[in-house]
Amino acid sequence: MDVRISVQNLTGMPLFEGLDTEEIGEVLSRVNVIVKRFRKSDYILLAGDCVDNLCIVISGTVQMIKEDIWGDKSIISNLGAGAVFAESCLGRRHDRSIVSYFAASDSEVLMLPFGKILENPSNSKAHAKVVCNIVSILADNNSRLVEKTEILCKKTLRGKIYAYLEQESDNVGSKRFVIPFSRTDLANYLDADRSALTRELARMRDEGMIAFEKNTFEILE
Predict the structure, then answer these.
(1) What would the pLDDT profile of 4-62 be if each residue is shown by its tens digit?
(2) Maximum distance among all alpha carbons in the chain?
(3) Alpha-carbon dihedral 98, 104, 107, 112, rounded to 10 degrees
(4) Of 43, 85, 163, 197, which has the most beta carbons under 10 Å away?
(5) How far apart are CA 14 and CA 16, in angstroms?
(6) 34 with 116: CB under 8 angstroms?
(7) Are the beta carbons of 29 and 75 closer than 8 angstroms?
């Protein structure tokens, strides 16, 4: 479903960092912006789809996922408001997505034609700033994928769990934090069996390594 979006809702988002509402409006007036609303469990993009747009989460949560031929889902990344996605598909020879994007909750997504974003015939400073922001976002997204690789490289499930929890703790600067995943989604993120994950979390709690209640965790060691 296509919807309207206020420019005020975009201020402070990483893509428009350093721009005021007038400058954001100037950039958006140069491209054909689409804002779409997705219900929870809707697919935004499927693996194999052609991708022309840079996508920004306005509200809700979007997950980057990879599914195998049996329908098993692995969560690559969890994306909240302000996150940019589908950028890794743009500039590829065939511009086709190798992953799917899934609305984990009711979400609104802003779609910007990437080709138009790269064009800046009038040498607009605001437009140039958006391009610089895109480069920074690409670097940040790449760093998060490296962090995910570090988790999956751990040889044991406990190692994966602890590496993930340490990253979340570092991100918020506190030993106590809330994770964005249900137990099922956390298992999918760690490429683990849900029952095995639940058992290992219980063992880690019993051994005094962590404390948790639902999605709130605390690292004790």
Answers:
(1) 667 777 888 888 899 888 988 888 888 878 899 999 999 999 988 888 888 999 999 99
(2) 63
(3) -10
(4) 85
(5) 5
(6) no
(7) no
Q: Which residue has the tokens 């769990």?
A: 161
The first and second tokens of residue 96, run together, are 């086709």
Rounded CA-CA distance 82/15 in Å is 8
Give the Cα separation of 74 and 58 in Å (integer).
24
The pLDDT tens digits for 74-93 are 999 999 998 999 876 665 55
Note the pTM of the prediction, 2 decimals.
0.81
How many whole angstroms separate alpha carbon 48 and alpha carbon 95?
A: 9
Please state whether beta strands 53-59 and 107-113 pair in parallel, antiparallel, or not at all (unpaired). Answer: antiparallel
- What is the spatial order of strands in the sheet that 107-113 belongs to? 34-38, 107-113, 53-59, 84-85
**Torsion sign over Cα 16, 98, 63, 140:** negative
Give backbone dihedrals phi and psi of 137, rounded to 5 degrees, phi first: -65, -40
